[in-house]
Amino acid sequence: MGVTPLIAQEPPPLQEFDFYVVSSPRFHNIRFGVFDDDGKLVSSKPTGFRSSGRSLRYSYKGPQKIVFFEEEHVPTADNPDAVKRTMVATTRIPSNMEEVLFLFSNNPNFPEKGLKYKLQGVNLAEGNIPQGHVTIFNTMDTEFQGGVQKTKQKANLLTITPGANPSISFYPEASLLLGVNTEDKGFVQVYKETITCESHERMLLILFPPRFPGSMNVGSKLIRLPLSGPEDEEDSRTPKSKN
Predict the structure, then answer these.
(1) What angle do CA 107, 232, 83 make, to 5 degrees?
(2) How far apart are CA 31 and CA 43, in angstroms?
């Protein structure tokens, strides 16, 4: 009986895309891997969160499943530069995405279930958010009811579900009201804002959990697109290896 020879399989191609990070609280010590052309982890790079909105732009080249981790320096006699890496968030990015916004939020079930942070990715391709429109991304598991109203026009009722919602025309300006229906108090307002959106602008409104326990006011960040620009460039030099 003949033996079928084993055929070496080529490793999957590395994914390349640019990304930004944003969160409700400012997280610290969250890094992502830097890989060589063979897909080997050679070092790590820190992500910098901003309280005012999204981060600078980062470039990633590596496995399709991007992993974020915390890094701790744990020197030993044999390796004074040794580090310990603990995975805190991960997601798989479709191969057709070239520019991504990663939304970080605390995982309320950690450490009993899941990783430390919830991680959700938004494709920033122009076709996903038309000009003069706002896309609402709800990072929570809660469904909100509300409406959008432009001056001298009738309000359009809407339901905001978890994740990305269909884009809404806000040009030139519209008021957004969101709330939840409760058994004891009926409709409770959680968000109200008037947003000005020029005809050429595309916007992403991100809803985060309330910052304070017991509060009904959700957190939010309004991101204006496109994000790319010379002022957004991160230092592209490869950081020193810490294996």
Answers:
(1) 50
(2) 10
What pLDDT digit, counting tens, does each position of 174-200 carry? 999 999 998 888 999 999 999 999 999
Q: Which of 192, 190, 170, 172 is nearest to 181 (CA)?
A: 190
Fold of 130-231: Immunoglobulin-like (2.60.40)
| Among the listed residues 165, 195, 1, 13, the one whose alpha carbon sits nearest the alpha carbon of residue 93 | 13
**Pairing relationship of beta strands 99-106 and 117-123 according to DSSP bridges:** antiparallel
Token couple for 1: 């009986």
Q: Which two tokens stand for residue 30?
A: 């969250």
Closest CA to 87 of 102, 72, 74: 72
86 Cβ neighbours under 8 A, 6+ residues apart = 69, 70, 72
Distance from C-alpha of 19 to C-alpha of 202, rounded to nearest angstrom = 17
Q: What is the per-residue DSSP string for 192-215? A: EEEEE--TT-EEEEEEE--SSTT-
- The amino acid that residue 190 corresponds to is V
Which pLDDT band, with edges at 50, 70 and 90, does 54 fall under? confident
Collapsed DSSP state (helix, strand, coil) of residue 227? coil
Q: Where are the domains positioned within the chain?
A: 12-124, 130-231
Residue 137 tokens read as 């991304």
């959008």: which residue's tokens?
148
What would the two tokens of residue 134 be? 């706002």
> What six digits make up the tokens of 10?
């080529």
pTM for the complete prediction?
A: 0.79
